[in-house]
Amino acid sequence: MRLWQKIALLNIVIIITMSMLTAFIIRSITINAMRSEGLIQGESIATNLSDRISELLLYEDYYNASEVISEFINKERDLRYIFITDLNGKLFAHTFKEGHPKEMLNWNPIAKDSTKSVQLLNTEEGNITDIAVRIFAGMPAELHIGIKEDRMIKTLNSIRNYMILLTASVIIAGALLSFVLSRMITKPLEQLNEFTDNLSRGDFGRQVQISSRDEVGRLADTFNNLSKELLLYKERTEESYKQMLRTEKLTALGRLSGGLAHEIKNPLMPIKTLFQAFRDNPQITRQDVDIVLSSVEQIDDVVTKFIGFARNDTLNYSDIYVNAIIKDILELIEFQIKEQGISLQIELSKTPPLSGDRPMLKQAIFNILLNAVEAMPEGGKLRVQTSQRGEYIIIDISDTGIGIPAEIQEKIFDPFFTTKKDGTGLGLSISYNIIRMHKGQLQCKSDVGETTFSITLPAANKT
Ligand SMILES: Nc1ncnc2c1ncn2[C@@H]1O[C@H](COP(=O)(O)OP(=O)(O)OP(=O)(O)O)[C@@H](O)[C@H]1O
Ligand SMILES: [Mg+2]
Q1: What is the mean pLDDT of residues 332-357?
Q2: What is the CATH number of the domain that holds 335?
């Protein structure tokens, strides 16, 4: 249930409860007021009548007494009956047309020391208030009048109808009003809610339009300022990030070209020396040709690897099983492994395929495996392990070779960084690049006696 619906419902419940309570209180007050008013009137009627009748009773003028009370009962609409007892307490006259009730004389007796009495009689015709007055003080002669509550009930009924109508109108009007009001109150809150949702999604710079000057309006102002500031901050961060990238790229380019120049200059030196000597002594030996050839090959090797490193082709995707690639590579370097007396431990577990460029990934794993073999010229243990962790495939390559000193661990992925006499220093940087292009990670850990390279690659998404 939404906030505005909750508020509206709460309002309606309050309105209904209040209306019902008010109606009930008004009804009780009205009943009490009407009863006491009726009583006062009834008592005055009874006293008047008793004055008029007293003389007729003394003369035992039954005929006139009956006349007077009949006339009276016809005149007073609320009177149900009148009866009179004589000086001996016996029934003298009454207004019952079809015989009087037998136990009538026991109704509403007046206490000895009192002059009047009131009693509510519960009869078949409904509630009747019997008002009795003594006609002569200290004598048993009494006058009783019975007042019906019909009129009061009718009035109460019509009051009740009005009350129902009024309560229903109040409830309907209240419900409508609370719907409108709750919508009015909660609409800005909903706007704010949507706005903060957008903010949390990174949609900065938007403004929420709330015109009210209350707490919600002030909150909206604060959020609007925040949104502006966040946008500014985002723009500045992006700008400085771009600048950083530019500087980083330039530095990398400088380092790369420096490395490349150095790598090419080295083999060029013997060629240059040879040609200088050739100028003075134009005799060329087979050994000279071998030197030139090996130098040119070295340049070729550097340039080919560099091209491989700098290459940023689009990948030629296919489903690849890393275990198959590892087996292929191991076949390639089997001879070297055996010759160096390296013992091989292979632990390949069943892994799902990954989507990638087969030749590139083969190159990446090859470089790492070759480094491991090259690190154990005197033999050792090479362990190749594959496993799966969630959505990722892990390849661990460990060797017990010379290890990597802590101070150079940071540099081994840099292009042209090498500690080998004839290494180009491009192997690991090429592997790093390829793995990164496959959204994977390459990590290295070298402790005493064991160096491990871990490749993490995402498995193919089969959705
Ligand atoms: N398994 C390893 N054990 C010890 N040192 C390693 C290992 N793998 C890499 N290194 C270090 O990292 C350096 C960089 O390796 P990288 O493969 O990039 O170049 P390289 O092997 O020297 O040259 P190239 O790959 O062209 O033969 C290596 O020279 C070596 O010092
Ligand atoms: Mg290498």
Answers
A1: 95
A2: 3.30.565.10
